[in-house]
UniProtKB/TrEMBL annotation:
This is Alanine dehydrogenase. The gene is ala. Belongs to the ornithine cyclodeaminase/mu-crystallin family. Archaeal alanine dehydrogenase subfamily. It comes from Haloarcula taiwanensis. NAD(+) binds at residues 127, 154-155, 235-237, 241, 308. Pfam families: OCD_Mu_crystall. The keyword RNA-binding does not apply.
Length: 337
């Protein structure tokens, strides 16, 4: 299933170095969202391999590292690689660095040749937004026009960019403890959407809600939500983190990205560990809904929750979009000897 780009890279023994600026310039959400959906389908159809995410915890630095390898095959393409990513919440204040950074090695499945080494920080933000969009497309009401976002950090931007690809978003309510971050968000999107600052409850009343915070004490209650709010719970990515009160998780239609990851480090990890929820509370994995073996939203009323931990298959699918968009004369190239 090799393509011409693979052949060119092998022939010249070159590895492309891809900085974040190239990823920002080449990745379009209109291309990325269907690629991420295809990755979920491949995972459900057993044409993907994704060993569990491994962690190196560094409490002395208030951070951790994660390694995320994957291979996937669809009807039209195959791809493989590995991402090395960190989460250090103190970075913005202490080092003027992003909380999350990553590097991805994108490889040719046929030969194992490293086709590209790319910055995965921007890639991670974009594929996370795209995953929320896939879930929103299947779980939000059809005419959803309002989006609430809790947490106005960098991930909030790709949430809006991606979700507006699948629903006719008109108004956005953004909530954050940092007024400056809220204002930057408003300044960025104010010409395209009706954007305003609001409380957590005001954001949660929207048709779609994305939570992108690092909190460990839940901040969204069942009473906060609207009658048909779909929630993308994106912030919990390590043990002990939880953005939604347990009754939200228990009462909603609950869709997860991966059983092992969500029970270990996703939104449900805390109530799962305490026994407040169990397997009967999980309605489906997103891949099951994508391939049609489980149902998405069927009623106009009721809340839905997507628990996203971030999967390596998403990173590799996104890396393929980047690599194929660059062309032979883009980026920096290293000669392999």
């Amino acid at each position: 299933m090799s393509n011409s780009l693979y052949s060119t890279a092998r022939q010249h023994n070159q590895t492309t170095i891809v900085p974040s600026t190239d990823i920002e310039a080449t990745v379009e959400m209109a291309d990325l969202v269907p690629a991420i959906e295809a990755a979920f389908a491949a995972y459900e159809n057993d044409t993907a391999q994704m060993p569990p995410k491994s962690y190196i915890d560094l409490p002395q630095h208030n951070g951790d590292f994660r390694s995320m390898p994957a291979y996937l095959e669809t009807d039209d393409w195959e791809a493989s690689g590995i991402k090395w990513v960190n989460v250090h919440p103190d970075n913005p204040d202490e080092f003027d660095l992003p909380t999350v950074m990553g590097t991805l090695v994108y490889t040719d499945p046929e030969s194992g040749f490293p086709l590209a080494v790319m910055d995965a920080t921007t890639l991670t933000m974009k594929r996370t937004g795209a995953a929320a969009a896939v879930a929103t497309d299947h779980l939000a009401i059809e005419g959803a026009s309002s989006l609430g976002i809790i947490g106005a950090g960098v991930q909030s931007y790709t949430q809006l960019e991606a979700i507006s690809q699948v629903r006719p978003i008109e108004s956005v309510v953004v909530s954050d403890l940092d007024d400056d971050r809220v204002q930057r968000f408003i300044d960025t999107f104010g010409d395209e959407f009706d954007v305003r600052a609001g409380t957590i409850s005001e954001a949660a009343q929207c048709d779609v809600l994305s939570t992108v915070t690092p909190v460990e004490d839940p901040i969204v209650t069942l009473e906060d939500l609207g009658e048909h709010t779909h929630v993308n719970a994106m912030g919990a990515d390590a043990e002990g983190k939880q953005e939604l009160h347990t009754d939200v998780i228990r009462e909603a239609t609950l869709v997860i990205d991966d059983f092992e990851q969500t029970t270990h480090s996703g939104e449900i990890n805390v109530p799962w560990s305490t026994g407040d929820i169990d397997e009967s509370d999980i309605d489906a994995e997103l891949g099951e809904i994508v391939v049609g073996s489980a149902s998405g939203r069927e009623d106009l009323s009721g809340n839905t929750v997507f628990d996203s931990t971030g999967l390596a298959i998403q990173d590799i699918a996104a890396a393929r979009i980047v690599y194929e968009s660059l062309g032979d004369d883009s980026g920096h190239r290293l000669e392999m000897v």
